[in-house]
Amino acid sequence: MPLQVLDHPLASHLLASLRDERTPPQEFRQLARRLTTLLVLQATYGIRTRIDRVTTPLCETEARVLDQGLAVVPVLRAGLGMLEPIVDLFPDVAVGYIGLERHEETAVARSYYSKVPQSVEGRFTLCVDPMLATGGSAAQAISLIKAHGASQITMVSIVSAPEGVEKLQQAHPDVAIVTAALDEKLNDRHYIVPGLGDFGDRLYGTP
Ligand code: PRP
Ligand code: URA
């Protein structure tokens, strides 16, 4: 499935402030929510719709309405920073949670929590995690989501590394990826360069 890199002046502007090391957590959280709104509009372009009829004060007319439910699975903890705007846009979204934490040295993700509703089956499903670095966390999360019956899955990230995109495309070729930036590389500590640092720490102000 194709990789889509969001190409919008506002997205670039928001991302520049997210990257800025001086941005404090309260502003970082707000920027992440705003940028996620743009990403989600792009990521849900393919959700199923149908033609309905509505009556305006003037006449009856055709109107396109949503015909498919949405599910979202944020990867804890950083993915939580992307949840709120999705719930605002799609109030009847089904929400699952997957907790994964990378080992500081090996970058291998350890699973510590998972609650994914069976109702993901048949829904247009977004897995949200702001950083797609080695791709290990995203590949694990998507395997878990698929095990609950989801078959139409899009990975939504804010910053991606080429290594992570390649790993995810190899592990799950049927999963679309929507991101706000495709960065240059990973460094020797498996951090995205130029990136924005540790998203979870910047979101929650942890050292
Ligand atoms: C970060 C990020 C992803 C993962 C990406 O989480 O939010 O989940 O790293 O790296 P990968 O592509 O190499 O797997 P982290 O493990 O730091 O946990 P946190 O969200 O709790 O801070
Ligand atoms: N996780 C982050 O938060 N940042 C990175 O650059 C890589 C993984």
TrEMBL record:
Species for this entry: Fimbriimonas ginsengisoli Gsoil 348
Alphabetical GO biological process terms: UMP salvage; uracil salvage
Pathway this chain belongs to: Pyrimidine metabolism; UMP biosynthesis via salvage pathway; UMP from uracil: step 1/1
PANTHER family with a match to the protein in the record: ADENINE PHOSPHORIBOSYLTRANSFERASE, URACIL PHOSPHORIBOSYLTRANSFERASE, CHLOROPLASTIC
Protein name: Uracil phosphoribosyltransferase
Key words of the record: Allosteric enzyme, Glycosyltransferase, GTP-binding, Nucleotide-binding, Transferase
EC number: 2.4.2.9
One GO MF term: GTP binding
